[in-house]
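Minutes, methods subgroup
Present: GH (chair), OT, SY

1. OT presented the first of two proteins processed in the latest run. Sequence and structure tokens recorded below as shown on screen.
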Amino acid sequence: MTDSIITLLSTMISYIAGNMVYNPSMPLLFTQSFFWVFFTVVLAVYSVVYKNISLRNSFLFFISLYFYYKCSGWFVVMLMVSILAHYYIGNKLYKAKNATVRKWLVAASVFVSLLLLSYFKYTYFFTSLFNDIFSTDYTAVNYFYLWSNSLFGTHFDIGKILLPAGISFFTFHALSYTIDIYKGKTTPAKNVVDFGFYLAFFPQLVAGPIIRASEFIPQIYKEYVLTKEEFGRAVFLILCGLVKKMVLSDYISLNFVDRVFDTPDAYTGLENLLAVYGYALQIYCDFSGYTDIAIGIAFLLGFRIPPNFNSPYKANNLTDFWRRWHISLSSCLRDYLYIALGGNRKGKVRMYVNLIITMVLGGLWHGANWRFVIWGAIHGLGLIIHKLVPQRYHFSGKNAMSRFTARFLTFNVVCFAWIFFRAADMAVVKDMIGQMLFHFDVSILPQFVAGYWKVILVLLAGYCAHWFPDAWKQTVRNRFIEYPVFAKVMVSVTVILFIYQFKTSALQPFIYFQF
């Protein structure tokens, strides 16, 4: 008996110790069992320190740094440098009275943020673009590795620049902090640890939502509050997020979507089209699933993160779509870029130019590739067309047929753009569109249904759940919230067992980790 206990303890210690160190092939994800072991320990310690606001913030800051280390290794040092730089700039900005000095400080914040983002995310893209234009043969160099090799005798590959997890998201957070101080929407954090906590808050650190400083900084100094209703909502969101990611997104991806996008010319146009529809559901369930879990975890820790999705495929037009999809990003692009460019204040032509610039840069934010530029341009052009068409020709949505037509057209434009977003390169885009145009082959449908009936059921279940009336979803959520604790536990265990049946052996990172 004693030997069995010792063996069990040894196994547990080995499991925990083995997961404590960063492993590039095993980043810390919400879908890992180790994350929930980690979070359980965090909650246990948090239950002791949460009443002391300073101690609570310090604890969550260092836990968030560790979480980022588990996601991105020693890039955590870069995150800490960003924290120190923007905390210093924010304090100087708040104290500065001279308008010119304030503008230079904001410019310094933008420069530091975009320098890091551009170096790690866009060096290969801009080097390739420069070589194509000027017929040169420059190669990208990782100067951090070069300095390390020179100073410490390491042997890193200086031609390889890795992308730190979530750099696009914490760059936006840092810019939000200094811009909100500049505009007088918030005051600086009281100390560098509190600011670091805002910038590195682990639930949303690597894939959003983007939380503006004016929304989050005030919460840092409030006492912990978690109502019964909020606890129920938090658990419900976490369960929904896990189902979206592990049951819907991962299953569709591994069993259908990835196969078609890898070799589109091996499938008919019909199968390619269904794969595009599959990817539309996959990316929504993947990203909104992450957001649901992040919001739920934040709730349990006493912090409120605004919603990031609102049934985007119910949108009646692209303007409506961007009010529903990745809400935190679209609102930031609107307030910090579109309005800064002049918005609609300088005439219609300038408004259209501002729209296309905003969406193209929004596409480039997602990835350093022409495919993302085209994806952003499609949405920009769609927004312009929607504004050019006279109001009387818009589908008003006053009747069911009008709403269906509007949503059908919008959904298919969005799906067409997803081809550029998902494809590995432009050759894949060309092959997919070519198959859909010239080799559609409806006759393959019975064979497809027979071979992929499980995938079809998952797709139908996902889309039906998405298109359910909001009132129905609200009713389900409210009933879960009203359940007694025992019933919540039973439902949670049932859902977890259900998820386990769909669990894949291979790790499936969240799509937006790459951004």
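2. SY then presented the second protein from the same run.
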Amino acid sequence: MSHALLDVKNLRVAFGGKEVVHGLDFQVAAGEKVALVGESGSGKTVTALSLLRLVQNADISGVASFFEPRPSLNVRDLLSIQERELRGIRGRDIAMIFQEPMTALNPLFTVGEQIAEVLELKLGLARAQAVAQAVQLLADTGIPEPERRAKSFPHQLSGGQRQRAMIAMALACQPRLLLADEPTTALDVTLRGQILDLLTGLQQKNGMAVLLITHDLNLVRRFADRVIVMENGHIVEQGRVAEVFANPQHSYTRRLIDSKPVRDVQEAPVVADAAPVMQARGLRVGYPTPLPGLRGWFRRGEFVAVHDAAFTIASGRTLGVIGESGSGKSTLALATLGLLPFTGDLRVDGQAWSREPAHNKALRRVVQVVFQDPFSSLSPRLTVEEIVGEGLFVHAPELSKAERRQRVLRALEEVGLGEAQYPGLLQRYPHEFSGGQRQRLAIARALIVEPRLLVLDEPTSALDVTIQKQVLQLLQRLQRERGLSYLLITHDVDVIRAMAHEVIVMKDGLIVESGDVSAVLDAPSHPYTCTLVRSAA
């Protein structure tokens, strides 16, 4: 191994006197790729943020020695240097890719402006040069139409595109150490390979080291040199990737490796004459776009995100929708929820969406949604009781306060969150829970109005493998017990295999293949489906 770039000794992090990271010792060598893995709440993200002192209200102790390049190898302790000096290191020598790009990116500026700002401040580039370099960085991350995307605001990009913009921003100054907190979480399987190849190429070219925080063990196998396993703020095992995966010594490491999603769904056939929960024919979604030159003064163009989609969801069945980022699958989900204008025929429980809110009120009780990012989809200003019980004010206003509270408690118990395990549960706020627990809150909020169909938009993509497996088991149990139907949007082939009865494959807004899940994934006929399945292997 080459000389140490980062040497951490006895790192401890505490909040309000309660220690959450307990005396960690580890090293990252120059040019080395180290993976830090563990369950949600294990302390891995807090560990990475603490190295740059980005954790608010935390008591941090220990030593984090950051070495200058050869020949001097002068050392600076990241935990004790002045804030002014550390500010010069952040973004220039040590960069970070954050897990949740929607909250990390500024919604008031285009992504190109935000990347260019880093280049201007850290490298002193002129404005025009910085803007051109920002476009090139977006192109390097594989984002389509980089010049147009550079002029887009974060909310105008898909989840995967926002994540790639974050990666471009982090790599702008060619840092010596990259702290990557779930850098491929929101990306589909084919683009994960592109990002890994990009990081590997830059790491080899610039001698950059990477500390990768991830729950994706396939990613660790493919990318990292060494792996560090964390549980409850402790390092329980570390070593070369091949050695740890071939012969894990700790029981927790073995549990992580064995956490692949398991199929446990009812395989009962569809009743021929039963009315479907949702049915679509010729569904089309388009967005107006500006036209260049004088034409844009008089008319607007159109970008078609979904072309003539057709599908049926039977009672108690799951329809999986899989495709790359930007393929139109989330747009399809929003249309099925009546949240986007569309053309064609779409019926929920035999009824069509209307422009009249009063008419749609009954349908919104039939179909509910669980979003990809539970942190941004749950209001930080509401308590658990207010979040989960909010739908009852609309759909069951006749209930008394005591009756609403009992419904909320039952819904929380049903998703595995009880007051016995979490004292004061109803008065807590979302930030007091881990990612997996927040997703359970989101599921409870959807279930409380007793819907027939849940639209699941990447419900486990932000969760580590063990929590992902638990949430999928929860969804499978709820489907068996309640007879729920699911429209499952995901880029994870393993999740589709575990959950779906039927699957449709989308590319560039078109359904290129559909059918029974085993038939489509085991013997795909379209080249794009073959690529997806092969990339997930």
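Chair's summary of item 2: The radius of gyration is 24 Å.
Next meeting: continue with the remaining queue.
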